[in-house]
Amino acid sequence: MSTFEAPLSGRHFLQIPGPTNVPERVLQALAQPTIDHRSAAFAELTRSILERLGKVCKTSSPVLIYPSSGSGAWEAALVNTLSPGDRVLMCASGHFATLWGAVAERLALRVDWIPGDWRHGIDPDTIETHLAADGEGAIKAVAVVHNETSTGCISRIDQVRRAMDRAAHPALLLVDAISSLGSTAYDHDAWGVDVTVAASQKGLMLPPGLAFNILSEKARGAARQATLPRSYWDWEPLLEANKRGFFPYTPATNLLFGLDAALDLLFEEGLEKIFARHARHARATRAAVEAWGLELLCLDPAAHSPTLTAVALPAGGDADALRQLLLQRFELSLGTGLGKFQGKIFRIGHLGGFNDLMLAATICGIEMGLRLAGIAHNPGGVGAALDALVRD
Ligand code: PLP
To answer: Which atom of ligand 1 is nearest to the CA of 208?
Structure first.
């Protein structure tokens, strides 16, 4: 029998923490006829996109766009700045940090891991201690994930920067902002980030398929010395072609149409309002989880993510069976537990193109699912979320 199930009537609720719901205006933009990527109209599109993307990341440095998933932008950040055998300091803050470290190791870099329990944000003091102990400057980069999509913990990149400055260490700061950019404050220049890695399918409200590197002058300098092999990911040909509004290869034209429309939406709503909306939806979601008496995976209130909430089931509960039930009964997709949390947690994405009623429906679906699955919980999560939305 085919595993494909015909959809129920009505809409699907895509509440995984990315890819996120793509707004109607972006979908329409994606459906435009493809144009010549060497035409004047295309060059104008590129320039306008790059200029506005810089504003989203708060940078006056170049922003580079790859036709790629986020993992490609991880690789691009490493191969442009580092050389074989270089040491990279990374924090084991969750599944995505672990994957990025694995990419580094496959590229012949040596990763110094700061251990973590996947339930807290990054501790800047530990970074300072490690860097202070590296008197000869063998560590060439600190690579951290801003918002761990696998755990729902967000870290303070400004504090990581300050820790590096206190240690007076010259390492580059590489930051994965894949599930934070466009949804919460992110300040590439002010935080002294050397390479920001981002992707299209989260706060930027596009389908998967575009990924970004945002550079600093220091990163560009490092790229001139770095000797890891690179071709497709090489920043220089891209920077050169981008000056004229073009790419050194065939770009993902229609995704760029979509990005153009998504940037319009971001600036029409206003970044500050968008950040406040995400924080408010996260608070309402946590109010529901607390009312159910379930455990938030993130143990540090200061590190609660504004873009997703990871929820632990009571011992013996099967989070993937619950997710399956929610999909089959209610057309609701929630994020699965990743890595060591597979089957133990589910993740609610509340980022991107999202509003109060979408959140209310999501929380309703989960509460019905908890009842149907016989998972021990207190009733009242829906009421708590609605109260929070009305009050906040
Ligand atoms: N980093 C983070 C924080 C992510 O959430 C993801 C994907 O969800 C990735 C990296 C990997 O990105 P991709 O799956 O687009 O390659």
So the answer is: 15
